[in-house]
Design goal:
about 240 residues, alpha/beta, Rossmann fold, 2 domains, six-stranded mixed β-sheet, 7 helices, 10 strands
């Protein structure tokens, strides 16, 4: 093979270790920071979607406070939370975003308790990036009521359609195709390959079943800010 993908932050050391033995093969990891002659990571710009979530949150929140529940406190997760906060503060400078990390990706109960604790502090919007554990956040929103949640990575709107207002979606297959095209066309360069909305790799997918809950001025603002992001006019947190 002349192209090998390691789908995850955890594959970067292995890729760097074997790459010298296969100089004609390109090794690509999804996230990470390791760059060698034939090793490079894809950086998914989820911050673009979570910034838009922050704008939506600040314009719709009744409490002026939102929460974020993460699995491990790693750069790709942390930056998404910071982008949500930045988006919210661009609309309402005194808006409060509280982060909580459960230390793993599997404990649904821990994520639920973390979400409930954030709700007890006044958060009426909760964003989760906790992989399988994120289901607990949706459960908490369903039980508590009057709270909206956001999905991450995949379109999770249908998991809990009555509370998941939108999802920050990564189109990983499209990212793989983009890289494969670079390798095939010999335009690949070993560097941090950032991919976002303009590459059709990142999107904010609003739940159509809840779209009527979003005021028209909020939807218009999201489109306005999205255009600014695509034009490079919005400063976003960088995960790596």
């Amino acid at each position: 093979f002349n192209l090998v993908f390691g789908h995850g932050f955890e594959f970067q050391d292995a890729a760097a270790a074997v790459a010298p033995d296969f100089p004609n093969t390109v090794f690509v990891t999804s996230s990470g920071t390791t760059v060698r002659t034939n090793v490079a990571p894809m950086i998914f710009e989820m911050v673009q979607a979570t910034y838009l979530m922050g704008v939506m949150t600040a314009m719709m929140s009744k409490t002026g406070k939102a929460g974020c529940v993460g699995g491990l406190e790693i750069p790709s997760v942390k930056s998404g939370f910071l982008a949500l906060e930045a988006g919210a503060k661009s609309v309402q400078p005194d808006f409060v975003v509280v982060q909580s990390f459960i230390g793993n990706w599997e404990d649904v109960g821990a994520a639920k308790e973390a979400a409930l604790a954030l709700m007890d502090q006044g958060a009426d919007f909760i964003f989760q990036n906790a992989d399988a554990a994120g289901l607990g956040v949706f459960q908490a929103a369903q039980e508590r009521g009057k709270v909206f949640a956001f999905g991450s990575n995949k379109n999770q709107n249908e998991i809990a359609p009555q509370v998941v207002l939108a999802s920050a979606v990564l189109n990983v297959p499209q990212a793989f195709v983009n890289v494969a095209r670079r390798v095939k066309e010999k335009t690949f360069h070993a560097e941090l390959m950032r991919m976002g909305m303009k590459d059709n790799v990142v999107s904010l997918e609003i739940n159509p079943k809840l779209q009527d809950k979003i005021p028209a001025n909020v939807l218009a603002k999201i489109e306005e800010v999205k255009a600014g992001i695509l034009a490079g006019q919005v400063a976003l947190p960088v995960g790596y």
